[in-house]
Amino acid sequence: MMRFGPAAGALVLSLVGHMSLARWAEDHSERLRKNRKKARSIALFVACLGPLVRAVSIYTGHGQGLSPYALIEVTLVAFAGSTVGIMKTLFWLYGKVAYLVRRRTLGLGSAAPRAPHGEAAPDAVAATPETTEAASRDAGPSEAPTSTHARFEREEEERVSRRLVLERAVGLSLVAGSTGAIGWGIVRGRHDFRVEEVVVKIPGLSPKLDGYTIAQVSDIHTGTFVTPRELAEGFAKVREIRPDLVVATGDLVDHDPAYCDLLARELMKLPSRDGVYAIYGNHDYTTGHAAVAEALSRAGVRLLVNDGLAIRAAEGGFALLGLDEIWGRYWGKPGPDLARAAERVRETDLPRIVLSHQPKTFRDMAGKCALQLSGHTHGGQINPGFRPADLVFEFVAGRYERAGSTLWVNRGFGTAGPPSRVGAPPEVTKVVLVSG
Fold first, then answer.
1. What predicted TM-score, i.e. pTM, was given to this entire model?
2. Which CATH number characterizes residue 326's domain?
3. Residues 373, 416 contacting (CB under 8 angstroms)
4. pLDDT the model gives residue 2
């Protein structure tokens, strides 16, 4: 069931986005208000269609067909609808609070809820001369409408009208802005590969290896949106680095095992004096970890699953330790095990460089290694002026230090879910080691 988690998340986002847009459109269209049930039924159907197509794609293991287009539609509407929904909620809260404050200021007390857009309240009864006369006889002098009350109601109607005009303008701007930003991320942002250079002191590393360079790629997500074109664009950056070692820190394939051989072949073509190494990510398990492992083995890429080896031990090098993915436990695997990986290296006095897909393992690795290289978070992937991932993840992107250990979190190479990157360009990391 873990493999359907992304599809379930897409369904929630799609429902929020489509229904928020539908409700906002109803507020500004008399025709839609008159056909509210029909409009919402259509919005609900479309909201469920995209994630359903995506789920079928994941289940069958094929990423082609309608799935890419469905995912793009869900992405655009989810972000546009979410921003409009937040805007609409804020406008409603402001209007409600302002209405109550003005009534209290004028000494009018509380009032029954008012129906929107001038519609009659559900329990309202049409006024007739007879009912009006009866109400006048029954009401005391203190209950008669006052000029203050009448003026307040007129002014309130004008405020509501102005607020609706403003809400319409802001809503259209948000829809255009969010759609434009996500569209840019699809067309351009996910192709804007950057090389991030980080210099790390490694205590115990021989000065002979000062300047030793590791190229890290992570979260490649080879599949529908990471094709030979994207691999060529990103791997060109790796070739520019001219690394001594290449590591791929998980999520090598998105969800279609048909792409495993393509990814493995392209990885093995990368120039590297000391080889190319990889570890599992959560998507590699949902894709089929056996298929990933077989493809890497055929190509000559060594997969490290709680495994390790010494790199240039004779020159005072380091131990490269690759950990299993946390999600491996759902497939009956042990999950990350540093002790088991370290046992695979005969030279116990070498400094450790750990490969672990999810950066949260650094909580346990800190103080037990010199450097941990991770990915998983995509640097937030879509950051609309701020980084929402900071609300969820402790480690999102870049460098972190703890207990004498360094963590580097790569922003990732491809995309997961929305095929877009905004404020989080795809990354190839150039790690330069110096003796500490």
1. 0.79
2. 3.60.21.10
3. no
4. 52
Separation CA 436–CA 110 (nearest Å): 71
Q: In this structure, are 305 and 354 located in the same domain?
A: yes
Burial 359-389 (b: 16+ CB within 10 A, else e): bebbeebbebbbbbbbbbbbbbbbbbeebeb
DSSP helix/strand/coil, 400: strand
Q: What's the confidence (pLDDT) of residue 291?
A: 97
Q: Is residue 67 very low, low, confident or very high in pLDDT (cuts 50, 70, 90)?
A: low
DSSP string for 42-111: HHHHHHHHHHHHHHHHHHHT---TTHHHHHHHHHHHHHHHHHHHHHHHHHHHHHHHHHHHHHHHTT----
Range of the domain at 242: 195-435
Please tell me the predicted confidence (pLDDT) of residue 60: 64
Residues 202 and 295 in one domain: yes
pLDDT of residue 343: 97
CA nearest to 410, candidates 433, 428, 434, 383: 428
The string over 271-290, giving b where at least 16 C-beta atoms fall within 10 Å of a residue's C-beta and e elsewhere, is ebebbbbbbbbbbbbbbbbe
